[in-house]
Structure prediction request, 197 residues.
Amino acid sequence: MVFTKSIEVHNMIQIGSTGRNSGKTTLAKKIIAENYQRFTIYGLKIITISGARGKCQRGETGCGICTSIDEGYELIEESNSVGSKDTMQLLKAGCKKVYLLKVFHDHLLEGFLTFLQYVPRDTLIVCESNSIREVVKPGLFVMMNNQKSLKKTAAKVIDEADIVLETPKFVRSFNLIKTKNGVRFSENDVENRREKV
Prediction:
């Protein structure tokens, strides 16, 4: 599907990956831990459902996430910071709030706009997703590229990444600044930059 409408969200760091267990959440937790005392941070994990409705995308018995909705999207606020789920770890790392967006691919923008209704204007968003880049241009898009294969969702957007990392360890910190328009990234550090670290 080709989306004809997209939006810019300058106060969002998007973290994508070429495969599972790549370090997205480790990287997100590091960004959150380094900045939660300076900024209010909301976390968002997006699970984009693109397979047959009511069936696991991986062809397995599955965890129930993909089969728990049959149309549109579902936005769930995480309230537990004790546990191993990614959303729980983001909350524990220092996010003020964390949401899970389970969404069918054709409802990505609609689901994301619903999430934005809960986010105060002056808030930094740390988002784990590949697919959201199809409808949202974030302030910074980091792609984790440390897998032998390339997921279809990553292949569609990897060329849009500002930074491609092979490890979730930063060699530098991102220079975050606050402007009258909200939280932004220093243009000197990220503008027109794509590097392999």
Remarks:
- Helices lie at 24-35, 86-93, 108-116, 152-157, 187-190.
- The two ends are 32 Å apart (CA to CA).
